[in-house]
Write a structure and sequence with these properties.
The complex is a heterotrimer of chains A (286), B (358) and C (271). Chain A is mainly alpha-helical. Chain A has helices at residues 2-8, 11-37, 54-61, 64-96, 100-109, 116-127, 132-140, 152-176, 180-188, 193-204, 206-221, 225-231, 238-246, 252-275, 279-284. Chain A has a single domain, classed as Orthogonal Bundle (MetI-like fold), CATH 1.10.3720.10. In chain A, helix 8 runs antiparallel to helix 11 (206-221) and helix 11 (206-221) packs antiparallel against helix 14. Chain B folds into two domains: 9-232, Rossmann fold (3-Layer(aba) Sandwich); 242-357, RNA polymerase II/Efflux pump adaptor protein, barrel-sandwich hybrid domain (OB fold (Dihydrolipoamide Acetyltransferase, E2P)), CATH 2.40.50. Chain B is elongated. With 271 residues, chain C is an all-alpha fold. Chain C starts with a helix and ends with a helix. The chains are: A mainly alpha (286), B alpha+beta (358), C mainly alpha (271). At the A-C interface, helix 2, helix 4, helix 5, helix 6 and helix 7 of A face helix 1, helix 3, helix 4, helix 5 and helix 6 of C.
């Protein structure tokens, strides 16, 4: 038992105890509870029932694949769009902007401190019938674009808008870890600019691209406000279904099953994400 | 001449173990008041462990540390009247130079005006202009930081000042300057300095006495002269720098025999028992060419390379039997005129042979 | 020099693109502020009449005052508790090397990237199973699940650059453990602590998905805004939205000024 007593006395472990305990009670606890409820018969509010797989079966047979499908599809589209949108900016921030890069970082990060539903409401005002975009077009050109809000593209716009920093920053970190000397060496060895991009820059900044993509993917997958505020009733995303199962339908086991499915998917991705990052290097830069 | 005054700081059988690993093995040492004592050892020799124990950051597994006869094993670092200049100096980045120097006095509750006065005195002692008082640490150069760290330690007015290789990160010239300054400060303050370093050369410049540490054991304690001219074993002899080493056996009065080739060499008897071991000859006492002709110990060989070492030139000679490579050094303004590939004679005086047991 | 010209064109394109995206990020917020100053009951663009009466109404309204105090109390408590706990959490994250640290670092990150709405619902389930009535107190707890890890991460960045030898040096110079904490550890880590606190406050102040399921009968401003947004337009939405944004900006500005002042004070005179 000597090794255990040594381990328990480590100052690092002692300092980890408060946060660890807190997350145990506030994070692990609820998740385990959700998992347990997913095995209870439908519409029960206690855990002392005989466990059953009924909920899992009903989720598969009912039309929940639609909301899962929408969520997955929108998450993929969001990731793809954000890669295209942020790659040039990340390139600029690491290679061209020099000291302006700090200002851009701050400007991109600041909106994260504003409630996301206020920012999404801004889009409502922009896309609304007689809103900023429609109104300007009517005023200037006499054409009307009134059907912008409450559409699938509007939801995608909201997702792209809200999660842009989560793609941009990992890309910037990933790219800044590619030393310029490697590119110079490649160019010295006769590689063209396109070849340098494919052979050197892209593979080496891959960790950043991967982290950003996975991050945006799981965040979009579990999003709620974007589809509610900008999508109206056109689509139902998975978080929507979970919410209504828990609240309106008062069917905790059903909500739990859907949560378990979403959580499992997210955790698999997060696990994959963690395998690819060295936190000491990323956070501490050492 | 090995007589040491009553131990001011005394270590008795100090041993430190980390699990299975023995970092310090039965270290016995007595340091007298006002002495500049340097502990020298390669990395991993246990010198950092030893100094941490002396300062009170760590405690020995067994053995005692006594200051003026009182055992201080259990006195924590902040209660010991000793103080250390750290390897990376550990200057507080959020405080000005003045605040750094005054830190110990602030802790001790000294009035602000007295603190300032004393800090300015110390800056002057360390040849730092008074306007450094309000500078920030990151505005100071490497050499200036060394002096600030020393001033901060002196402000504590410790009975013993410890140094953990503080000069190791500096460039050669600055290091040389600071080594001399440190020796001056030692004389001016009259405090006891205990210094650790991996450089025997650095130790030679500054110290009254030197202790050589290897694998947690104190191998030899002595004056710089002792260490240089009378090394106790091959490790100490080789630690100083490149030397010619030959495995030999005693072969009658004033003679030793090369253990592999059987060649005989003359030595001067030191009165110490010697059966077999190593003969050490430093490159700078070796002679080459005509100068070697009249010497009792001679070797025929072929010159095959020469290297400029700054103030000296080093010649590498392969012995005719091909068994050994010999190093010979001459002053740069007195070069040897032979060419590589030519046969040469090299030699040394009997009294320049240093014998150490194996 | 064709490639030089090419490079200049690419450069210009990237700059233009970056500025466009920045505009894209701020346009909705500008729209909200603009809408809050219109006179009409229903938003119409171009705006033909400006007014500040919605602000007057907001300042007079007692329910708005309640919303504000709820949001503020939650954010303040979250900040204080998170900073204290995250201080130790960050030491474990970045300072000490211990068995299990890699695992701990990953566990800390999990809640940050976890779908917040699902987390909120899971907490709702957790509270009702434990027989705890949800109110703004439970929302504090819920916010902390997400914010505590973020604050820990932010403080860790500072802790990584902290050299424990500073503490040893102070201790060696006669300082007690408490004096070491007060004179060395806390001041050197203070930038990290302050940024952690700023993030904690603002993230809690603006949080919506966690509040939605955990405040019970109480309501924070983002929740109220959401309920109005989905149930139809009212001019109070842009007004309160602008006020929260203004509050966040003001808070950030004050925090920034405090940091500047502290830095100047420290550089100026000996203590």
């Amino acid at each position: 038992m000597k090794s255990f007593s040594d381990w328990i006395r480590q100052p690092g472990l002692l300092n980890a105890v408060p946060v660890g305990l807190f997350l145990l009670v506030g994070f692990a606890g609820p998740l385990v509870l959700v998992l347990l409820y997913s095995f209870m018969p439908p519409k029960t509010f206690t855990l002392n029932q005989v466990p059953t797989l009924e909920n899992y079966l009903s989720v598969v047979t009912q039309s929940y694949y639609i909301s899962f499908g929408w969520s997955l599809m929108l998450a993929v589209i969001t990731v793809a769009l954000l890669l295209v949108i942020t790659y040039p900016i990340a390139y600029g921030m690491t290679k061209l902007f020099n000291r302006w890069a700090t200002l851009i970082t701050i400007l991109v990060a600041l909106p994260l401190l504003i409630s996301e539903n206020i920012r999404l409401f801004g889009w409502v005002l922009l896309l609304l019938k007689n809103g900023v975009i429609d109104g300007s077009l009517q005023y200037l050109l006499g054409v009307s674009l009134s059907g912008l809000l409450y559409t699938v593209p509007a939801v995608v716009l909201g997702l792209v808008y809200v999660y842009l920093p989560f793609m941009l920053f990992p890309l910037v970190i990933g790219m800044s870890m590619v030393p310029d000397s490697l590119k110079e060496a490649a160019s010295d060895l006769g590689a063209s600019r396109l070849q340098i991009f494919w052979e050197v820059e892209l593979p080496l900044s891959m960790p950043g691209i991967l982290i950003g993509s996975l991050l945006v993917f799981i965040l979009s997958l579990g999003s709620l406000a974007e589809s509610k505020i900008l999508g109206g009733q056109v689509i139902v995303m998975i978080a929507d279904d979970i919410e209504s199962a828990f609240t309106f339908a008062q069917n905790w086991p059903k909500g739990s099953v859907l949560s378990v499915l979403l959580i499992t998917l997210s955790l698999v991705i997060i696990f994959f994400l963690f395998r690819n990052i060295d936190l000491d290097r990323l956070v501490g830069r050492r | 001449m090995n007589e040491v005054p009553l131990g001011f700081l005394e270590l008795r059988g100090v041993t430190k173990q980390f699990g299975e690993f023995t970092a310090l093995d039965d270290v016995n040492l007595s340091i007298s008041e006002g002495e500049f004592f340097t502990l020298v050892g390669p990395s991993g020799s246990g010198k950092t462990t030893l100094i941490r124990i002396l300062v009170g950051m760590d405690s020995p597994t067994s053995g005692d540390i006594a200051l003026r006869g009182d055992v201080i094993n259990d006195v924590p670092a902040n209660r010991r009247p000793t103080c250390m200049v750290f390897q990376n100096l550990a200057l507080f980045p959020h405080k000005t130079v003045g605040q750094n120097v005054e830190f110990a006095m602030k802790i001790a509750g000294v009035a602000a005006s007295t603190r300032r006065e004393r800090a300015l005195e110390l800056l002057e002692l360390l040849r730092l202009p008074a306007d450094f008082y309000s500078k920030r640490i990151n505005q100071c150069s490497g050499g200036e930081r060394q002096r600030i760290a020393l001033a901060r330690a002196l402000a504590f007015d410790p009975e013993i000042l410890f140094f953990d290789e503080p000069l190791s990160a500096l460039d050669f010239r600055l290091r040389k300057t600071l080594e001399k300054e440190l020796k001056d400060i030692h004389r001016e303050t009259g405090k006891t300095f205990v210094y650790i370093t991996h450089s025997l050369e650095e130790a030679m410049v500054m110290s009254d006495r030197i202790g050589i540490l290897n694998h947690g054991k104190l191998i030899q304690i002595g004056s710089p002269d002792d260490i240089y001219n009378r090394p106790l074993n091959k490790f100490v002899a080789q630690f100083m720098g490149e030397v010619n080493t030959l495995a030999v056996d005693k072969a009658g009065t004033g003679k030793v025999k090369d253990s592999t080739t059987g060649s005989m060499y003359e030595i001067t008897e030191s009165g110490q028992e010697f059966e077999s071991g190593f003969m050490i000859i430093r490159p700078e006492v070796m002679k080459i060419g005509n100068a070697a002709d009249a010497l009792p110990n001679r070797i025929q060989g072929v010159l095959f390379n020469d290297y400029a070492l700054g103030s000296r030139i080093q010649y590498q000679v392969r012995s005719a039997d091909g068994e050994n490579h010999w190093l010979v050094e001459r002053l740069q303004d007195d070069p040897f005129s032979g060419n590589a590939g030519e046969p040469v004679t090299i030699g040394w005086r009997a009294e320049d042979s240093i014998l150490v047991p194996s | 020099m064709k490639s030089l010209l090419q490079r200049k064109v690419v450069r210009a394109l990237i700059v233009v693109w970056t500025l466009t995206v920045l505009l894209f990020l701020y346009m909705p917020m500008m729209a909200v502020v603009m809408a809050s100053f219109t006179k009409q009951r229903y938003f119409r663009f171009p705006v033909n009449a400006w007014d500040t009466r919605w602000y007057e109404k907001a300042f007079e309204s007692l329910s708005v005052r309640d919303l504000f105090w709820t949001s503020f109390s939650v954010a303040l408590l979250v900040t204080i508790l998170s900073v204290v706990l995250a201080f130790f959490g960050a030491l474990a994250f970045a300072r000490y090397d211990w068995k299990g640290r890699k695992m701990y670092q990953r566990i800390i990150l999990l809640p940050i990237f976890f779908p917040q709405a699902v987390l909120g619902l899971a907490l709702l389930l957790w509270f009702s199973s434990l027989g705890i009535t949800t109110s703004w107190h439970t929302a504090v707890f819920a916010h902390m699940i997400w914010i505590l890890p973020i604050v820990t991460l932010i403080m860790s960045i500072q802790v990584y650059s902290f050299d424990p030898v500073w503490e040893e040096a102070a201790y060696d110079l006669g300082a007690s453990r408490l004096q070491v904490l007060r004179e060395i550890t806390l001041p050197i880590l203070s930038p990290g602590i302050i940024s952690g606190a700023v993030f904690a406050f603002l993230l809690s102040w603006g949080n919506f998905p966690l509040s939605l399921f955990t405040t019970g009968a109480d309501q924070t401003i983002p929740e109220w805004l959401y309920s109005k947004m989905v149930s139809g337009y009212t001019p109070m939405v842009p007004t309160l939205g602008s006020l929260t944004m203004g509050g966040a900006a003001g808070f950030l500005l004050i925090a920034f000024l405090i940091v500047l002042a502290v830095r100047r004070l420290r550089a100026g005179k000996p203590d």
